[in-house]
Design brief:
alpha/beta
């Protein structure tokens, strides 16, 4: 699999001179199986630029969009996703097992006046909502497994498996607070165990968390502990706070790397940035 980050900011877009290196667009990740096809995880503002890129790939006709949840920062880019306005595309929309029946209504509501000037019916792509998403399923040649997130209003994280390589994507997951429907800490640890790449929400410092506990996001220290317990090979810090500058992010990355080093583990730690690519 090849993975590319198109948006890694959390809560709201954060453009400006202080976020140039890590980027200001909200969540959108592209996954490409070696055999072809594309999986898009979340439709934050980063999906706009991805859509413009996809229009250049004339042979591409079918897309798979996987939604972790539908808070604004994860769907606000959808009305600006160019392929959705072309009848040349089929777009399969997936979510967790409990949300399949309402996915279409979420997008229709988002584009209803007075919130947006173009209605959903103005999109000409062929949509398939409520694609089957059991406890273990597949998208093309990539197997995936959902797990409930610890987040207000719920949501799902996903494990993607291809040729024995494992990508775990857990954004908006508060490890130190159990929201209704959340998995247990042990379940998250087992879910992530041995992953080649874990992309996990790391929005807050310990000091910030004193006033943001219960908001649905994890601290750097909690994510580091999960990576250690799960023995993941590579940890990617994700869902950066909108007030986190590039220099702030560098300092937090140093903190995380030092913590892993002191723990004596071989896990590599990086911070997500727009345009960053991985190959598993």
């Amino acid at each position: 699999m090849k993975i590319k980050i198109w948006g890694c900011r959390g809560s709201i877009c954060a453009p400006g001179q202080d976020t140039v290196r890590y980027g200001g667009n909200t969540t959108c990740v592209e996954i490409r199986p070696r055999e072809g096809g594309i999986i898009i995880v979340d439709a934050g503002s980063g999906i706009r630029l991805l859509g413009k890129q996809l229009l250049k790939e004339k042979e591409l006709a079918e897309l798979c969009l996987v939604l972790t949840h539908t808070h604004w920062d994860h769907i606000l880019g959808f009305p600006f996703f160019s392929p959705a306005y072309s009848n040349s595309y089929k777009i399969n929309v997936y979510g967790g097992p409990a949300v399949q029946s309402v996915l279409r209504s979420y997008f229709e509501t988002q584009m209803t006046a007075p919130f947006f000037p173009v209605e959903f019916k103005g999109m000409k792509a062929s949509f398939v909502f409520g694609c089957e998403c059991p406890s273990i399923g597949s998208i093309g040649l990539v197997n995936f497994i959902p797990i409930a997130l610890s987040h207000p209003n719920g949501g799902y994280g996903f494990k993607f498996v291809k040729h024995g390589k494992i990508l775990v994507f857990l954004t908006d997951n508060e490890l130190d607070f159990a929201h209704p429907g959340a998995a247990t800490h042990r379940e998250y640890t087992d879910f992530c165990r041995g992953a080649d790449l874990l992309i996990h929400d790391a929005q807050y410092t310990d000091d910030e968390y004193r006033s943001t506990r219960g908001w649905g996001h994890s601290t750097y220290s909690a994510v580091i502990q999960l990576a250690i317990e799960s023995e993941v090979k590579q940890l990617c810090l994700f869902h950066h706070d909108p007030d986190r500058t590039d220099d702030d992010m560098d300092r937090q990355l140093d903190y995380c790397r030092n913590s892993l080093s002191k723990a004596g583990v071989a896990t590599e730690c990086i911070a997500a940035a727009e345009g960053m690519e991985f190959a598993l």
